[in-house]
Amino acid sequence: MSNDNLNMSDLTAALNVEDRAGLVNALKNKLQNLAGQHSDVLENLTPIVRKRVEALREIQNQHNEIEAKFFEEKAALEAKYQKLYQPFYTKRYEIVNGVVEVEGAPEEEDKADEEKGVPDFWLIALKNNEITAEEITERDEGALKYLKDIKWNKVEEPKGFKLEFFFDENPYFKNTLLTKTYHMIDEDEPILEKAIGTEIEWYPGKCLTQKILKKKPKKGSKNTKPITKTEECESFFNFFNPPQVPEDEDDLDEELAEELQGRMEQDYDIGSTIKEKIISHAVSWFTGEAVDEDDLEMDDDEIDEEEDDEEDEEEDDEEDEDDDDDDEDEEEEQGKKSRKKSSTGHKKSGRSQLGEGQQGERPPECKQQ
């Protein structure tokens, strides 16, 4: 492999850095080096073409300056509107958790049985989103019923964002606040440096991220007590224990590196979904309306592509049917010829016809669909 190519040695060389951001930095540095090595492209151009490319580069630089201003104004605009959203989020919290009652709500006859707020609001909202629903197990639902609110805040140093999950007192863990913080290499591009989650203080026997297996001792064993073994299991609350790059680079081969990258991408996908979709449109996710909106978010190109695919499938089916008809015609014609040969009195014709019949009349599952 040439030095110009990215390889695993460049990746693993960065894995020992204390801030765990070396993996991304190594890639960026490698790309910069590659750009420098290929700068001789200009030298191979004719003078007039080189002059034109230099003019194009100047145009690109001017574009980049304007783009930088765009990102500055975009950040300021997002901060402005984030403040404007807060009063709505506060009202939503108060109604969901029964802090206030809406005007015109009917009074319950039996105050003791009165339901406060909107029960299971956040649990249902999370379960109605495809990304977050995949993370929630049946065991998790009992704990997520105590979820009171989800918020997100921008983090300045280092750049990124923090998710905050507020819980009522519950029988599962002591924490009333669980957080997940994403540190980004570049705020404008989703390049993740690392993620940090809250350590959950589980009550004894209530940990949802682990399961205890009990095995009976073997016959004749001196130990008569059941053998207990703890194993990690699927749970939404694994979200607060995000994947990390190991400190020892020897622990990470190419296959493990790809697996780790996939897990980190999935983790960021969940976090950004909660930040961008769930928090801002929680009511629509609770009612299920947001699910329908997501289904309808299909542009004309996607619709045209699907229609083209359906047409192609129909054409393929027609071709397969024509092929089957042709095969049947050939089989029938071969059968006629065989019968004709057998009538002439050749002794081998019977075997020949049997062989052709076995090949031609294939079982249905062997035919092309």
What report would you give on this structure?
This protein is α+β, with helices and mostly antiparallel strands. 50% of the residues lie in helices and 12% in strands. It has eleven helices and six strands. The protein has helices at 8-12, 22-37, 47-96, 121-127, 130-133, 138-144, 254-278, 282-287, 289-296, 300-342, 349-360; strands at 147-155, 160-167, 177-186, 191-197, 210-215, 227-232. The strands form two sheets. It has a four-stranded antiparallel beta sheet with strand order 1-2-3-4. Strands 5-6 form a two-stranded antiparallel ribbon. Strand 1 (147-155) and strand 2 (160-167) form a beta hairpin. Helix 10 packs antiparallel against helix 11 (349-360). The two termini are 44 Å apart.
What are the defining features of this structure?
369 residues; 4-stranded antiparallel β-sheet; 11 helices; 50% helix
Task: Walk me through the topology.
Elements: H1 8-12, H2 22-37, H3 47-96, H4 121-127, H5 130-133, H6 138-144, E1 147-155, E2 160-167, E3 177-186, E4 191-197, E5 210-215, E6 227-232, H7 254-278, H8 282-287, H9 289-296, H10 300-342, H11 349-360
Antiparallel strand pairs: 1-2, 2-3, 3-4, 5-6
Short description:
The chain is α+β, with helices and mostly antiparallel strands. 50% of the residues lie in helices and 12% in strands.
